[in-house]
Amino acid sequence: MSDTIGRFRLTRSAAAVAGAALIAAALGHARPALHAQPVGRPAATPDLEGTWDGTRRAHPINGPTIPWARSVPEGTMLPDGTLAGKNYVSNFPELNERALAFQKIFDEPLSPKYDCQPSTPPALEFDPFFMEVVQWPDRVLLRYEKDDQLRTVWLDGRQPSAHDYGIQGFSTGRYEGNALLVETSMYVFDVTGFDDYNGIPSSQQKKIKERYWRDGEQLKATVTVEDPMFLRRPASYTMRWLAAPKGYKLKPFDCDPEAARLSVQFIPPRYK
Amino acid sequence: MSVGLRSAAAAALLAAGWFAAAAPLAAHHSAAAAYDETKHVEAQGTVARVLVRNPHSWVFLESTDDKGQKIEWQIEMGGAPSMAWAKDGLPIGAVVKVAGHPSRAPGTHGITGATFAKADGTPIGPRAGRGETPQP
């Protein structure tokens, strides 16, 4: 008796499993297979992950001469945390005539930051806030506290199409030795796209190359900007971040348009 | 409640040690377009509103000018993370003194690089006496 019941149960269980398999197979044909999102840094790649402190603790605050400087007094802290030597070499960009003409007519209220338009490279990296690096097998996510920006660096070989213009451009990357190399193009024209101090715009031909690497407990990056519309040759700076305090979570920036534009009234108008 | 908009020399003398302790601001952001960092201004007024925001916070003081006309001082401060002290330090209705760099456009009443003090001169804020550098 009990043996019969046991066999009956076994038969019902087998039928249920078979039925479930058939349903699963049918569903598999009916819609695309779902794949779990790959998570985690692949082995044998440099570990850049974490939350990084780019505030004044890590480097001097940005300004008209930082990080782009024609000269720096000996002993001054440089953006990468080292001290300037006697023979500092200017990294200020060599502007072409078009850029110089733009600088001449530049009117500060034009700056889109007064309407909360986000900062972009090569300025975004140096803004004195925290940032987070997340490394997945097919991409690296660069998340910035400043302006709540997220940049995705694709590692899977994809290339931008003509539809990929955007405020943060389109980034691809690869690992080389101990470093992550990132190349970004497809930027939209930005009237203050070089930085927000010097009245230098950037064009849709702007290209940013970044090299990120660990230097002990620091994260370092060399940021190079090319823009043949405005620069005679590429310009670059090297900077550092320090490890963020343990448990630090990026805070929302929530740029407020009222607070952002208020100071424009204090700028004497250049044009009517 | 009184307002003083003085020359740099007069302001430095009137504000005595409190003001003398203010560190010069490095050229920062595009502040130089909106504020004259070679000049100093001091004022006194009643805290009417405090906007703790990004990219910059603002403190609004109700005051009067030399002719007794009602004016509002608009004081540009750092971003939200640097303003935690303001809730207790600058309560609405409090009478405070402020010193900093004046706005450039004629007829405006803006200040940046500000230091605050109570009416009796007691410094207010974690960076009291050293100026408040706005974050970009």
Secondary structure blueprint with pairings:
The complex is a heterodimer of chains A (272) and B (136).
Chain A: H1 2-30, E1 50-53, H2 97-105, E2 130-135, E3 139-144, E4 150-154, E5 170-176, E6 179-185, E7 207-215, E8 218-226, E9 235-243, H3 257-261
Parallel strand pairs in A: 4-5
Antiparallel strand pairs in A: 1-2, 1-9, 2-3, 3-4, 5-6, 6-7, 7-8, 8-9
Chain B: E1 3-4, H1 8-20, H2 31-34, E2 41-51, E3 58-64, E4 70-76, H3 86-89, E5 95-102, E6 110-118, E7 123-124
Parallel strand pairs in B: 4-6
Antiparallel strand pairs in B: 1-2, 2-3, 2-5, 3-4, 5-6, 6-7
Quick summary:
By secondary structure, chain A is α+β, with helices and mostly antiparallel strands. Chain A is built from three helices and nine strands, in the order H-E-H-E-E-E-E-E-E-E-E-H. Chain B has three helices and seven strands, in the order E-H-H-E-E-E-H-E-E-E.
Order of helices and strands of chain A: HEHEEEEEEEEH
Assembly form of the protein: heterodimer
What is the number of E strands of chain B?
Answer: 7
Which two chains touch over the largest interface?
Answer: A-B, 32 and 31 residues
- The radius of gyration computed from the alpha-carbon positions of chain B, rounded to a whole number of angstroms, is 13 Å
Find the count of extended strands of chain A (DSSP E, 2+ residues): 9
What does this molecule look like?
The complex is a heterodimer of chains A (272) and B (136). Chain A has helices at residues 2-30, 97-105, 257-261, and strands at residues 50-53, 130-135, 139-144, 150-154, 170-176, 179-185, 207-215, 218-226, 235-243. With 272 residues, chain A is an alpha+beta fold. In chain A, strands 1-2-3-4-5-6-7-8-9 form a 9-stranded mixed barrel. In chain A, strand 7 (207-215) and strand 8 form a beta hairpin. The longest helix of chain A is centred in the N-terminal third of the chain and has 29 residues, at 2-30. With 136 residues, chain B is an alpha+beta fold. Chain B has a 5-stranded mixed β-barrel with strand order 2-3-4-6-5. In chain B, a hairpin with a 6-residue loop joins strand 2 and strand 3. Chain B starts with a strand and ends in a 12-residue tail after the last strand. Residues 1-29 of chain B have low confidence and may be disordered. Chains A and B meet through helix 3 of A and helix 2 of B.
